[in-house]
Design goal:
64% of the residues lie in helices and 2% in strands. The chain is an all-alpha fold.
């Protein structure tokens, strides 16, 4: 028996329920990728750039931009400079570092683009005399660096770049991740970081099309189309040439 009152109507209980509703509402209204947050750490970007530099140094000299040490050395200098100036998190206060970061991405793009063109021209003209093993290694190195290059570009330009994303000033995304359209599948503080763009670049290079990340803006679609074109050209030509050599 009750005395006609409900425990749920107790003032303390009502207050608790209201606070819980407000807390849930504030958590769901604005996702992390659309509000001001802490900048992401630089370690993942730096590690991947080191991989790209190492691959460039291991390519045959005939595929390298001459002198062969120039572009890798410039990349290392820029990377070390960025790390020293901002060793922890990429924050809006270091917005001036965006231009050196873009230059670094451009230098890596130039080095890998030069190697890719030299390789493709050699294969088309039949002047490439590498054995099947070294040819596959060279093509694989260029293909891997191509993934890194486009991951950097996606990361640098999506919603204005990493520093702009921290401020949450761009309401319209250039890439639609699953967590954006289904926020219940991720923690409340989820937002895309460099490794998400690296995954996007890898899947686009292997599937030659979008998988679970959709490009929304025109530049994002054109960039993904360009990456797929480069990737399929390298894979088809290198594999075909290697098979022909083995025969």
């Amino acid at each position: 028996m009750t005395d006609g009152t409900d425990d749920r109507d107790d003032p303390a209980s009502r207050l608790t329920r209201i606070e819980r509703l407000l807390e849930d509402g504030s958590r769901d209204v604005v996702p992390a990728w659309r509000r001001v947050t802490h900048g992401e750490t630089r370690w993942a970007v730096s590690a991947v750039i080191l991989v790209a530099v190492a691959v460039q140094l291991m390519l045959p000299l005939r595929l390298a931009f001459r002198p062969s040490w120039l572009l890798p050395a410039l990349e290392l200098v820029l990377m070390v400079g960025l790390f020293v100036a901002n060793p922890r998190r990429i924050e809006p206060g270091t917005r001036w570092l965006r231009w050196p970061s873009l230059v670094l991405t451009g230098v890596i793009t130039l080095a890998n683009g030069w190697a890719a063109v030299r390789l493709v021209v050699g294969l088309v003209r039949g002047t490439d005399e590498l054995a099947a093993g070294p040819l596959l290694l060279s093509g694989g190195g260029i293909w891997l660096t191509n993934i890194i290059v486009f991951a950097l570009w996606y990361w640098e330009w999506d919603r204005g770049g990493p520093m702009a994303r921290v401020m949450g000033n761009h309401p319209y995304a250039d890439f639609l991740f699953v967590q954006m359209q289904s926020p219940e599948t991720a923690p409340p503080d989820w937002e895309p970081a460099f490794l998400d763009y690296l995954y996007l670049s890898f899947t686009n290079s292997t599937a030659f099309s979008p998988t679970d990340v959709m490009p929304l803006s025109r530049w994002a679609k054109m960039l993904m189309m360009g990456q797929s074109s480069v990737s399929v050209s390298i894979v088809v030509l290198v594999v075909a040439r290697a098979v022909n050599i083995l025969r």
